[in-house]
Amino acid sequence: MLAEVLIFLPSIARFRADYMLERLKQAQIAALVQLAADEMVSPELEAELLRNAEVYNVVLRRNDVRQLVLSSPVPGAVSGNYDLRTAGPWELIRDAVMTLVERENRIVRVIGNPVQEGGQLIEITMQTEPLRKAMVRYGGRILYLSALISAVTAVLLFIAAQKLIVQPIRRVVRHMQLYAEAPEDARRVIAPVAELEEMRVAEEALASLQTQLTGALRQKERLAQLGGAVAKISHDLRNILTTAQLFADRIEDSADPVVARSAPKLVNSISRAVALCESTLAFGKAEEPPPQLSRFALRPLVEEMIEGEGLAEAVPMIGPVALTEGAAPAGLVSCLIDVPPGLTLRADREQLYRVLSNLIRNARQALEATGVPGMIELSAGEGEAEWWIRVGDTGPGLPQKARENLFSAFQGGARKGGTGLGLAISSELVRGHGGRLELVRSDADGTEFMIHLPKETMDADT
After folding, report:
1. CA 20 to 30 Å from 432, out of 72, 216, 322, 355?
2. Domains in the chain, please, with CATH?
3. In degrees to the nearest 10, what's the CA dihedral of 197, 202, 204, 205?
């Protein structure tokens, strides 16, 4: 529309100026006829000359003399003067718009330069109604032509948009739908063919994404098959080891001193193998149900878990000596509980019990491996957005290799013979609550884990 305006207004202004110049030219010819006839033109011929020129009066200035060459009765007073000799573009556009807007027929005086140096200037008196009608007809032709050009342009743009944008987008969508039906089929990966650079970049990015996803799905499928095979082997091996464990228990009662000394080692080895099979089977099922959230007091759950692990609760004391002196005489490891009695949180009680039990068990095993008394501290609190539970110990810390893959199954085991499944499962359970399990520190002074549980629940309708 802006282009149409920029084209239409100068065109209509130019047409108006040409129309007036044409009237001046015809009026000059009529004046020259009058002068050539040596003022012997009859009134009838003079009227015909003025009528053909569509003017009322013709004034011609020659040799500094202003002369009324042709004249006829003017039906009204002159209401405007237009000097085409000094009119600029903006003035011509303004006068053209005013002529189109004004519907009243007016008498105007037009001044211009004679053609072929036929004098110094020429003036004519004319009415605006014929000029306005001619401008309307010309404007109609311009608008019709513009509409035709716009229609052709629109069709060309539509065809170009269909070919360069719409069809490539439909092709991409169709490939995405086909790929979604069978993402493992490499034949359904899109082949970039778009001519438009932006669409080609998008197709190349989609092809790269589909290729990577197909490869990942193939790898996941192989791993799933491998996991299924490992699960079957673990199941059969567990049965075999269980039988072996029964016989090993009987060997402990042997009167042979050598056998009696070797039996505990054999039983421990078989027990670790059985535990590994059971952990592998539990992890391979991947059937953890979603958490059943409910509000409950944390302190009773912690006390129940500590009692179930066979740990004695230490008496809180001040100073570094308290961590050792507070230990129960019955064992090397004791537990200090710093959980407010009135602290309640919203979580799955059974799953949180498993998480805390895994962390406490790992800490106890790490402390027992050192052979010196140690302390496990379990504290909890809440902020505006979350609850937090801290589990720390005074053990030797985790090895660097264990810290790098701490929450990865079969990779994050810090204890010889461990599988690393405990922390992987614990992290998965905490993520199921929308929270996170993180390692805060692990150095020579001990290891500290932190559980973060959000207070806000996700609502799919918001």
Report:
1. 216
2. 2-145 (no CATH), 197-284 (1.10.287), 289-454 (3.30.565.10)
3. 140
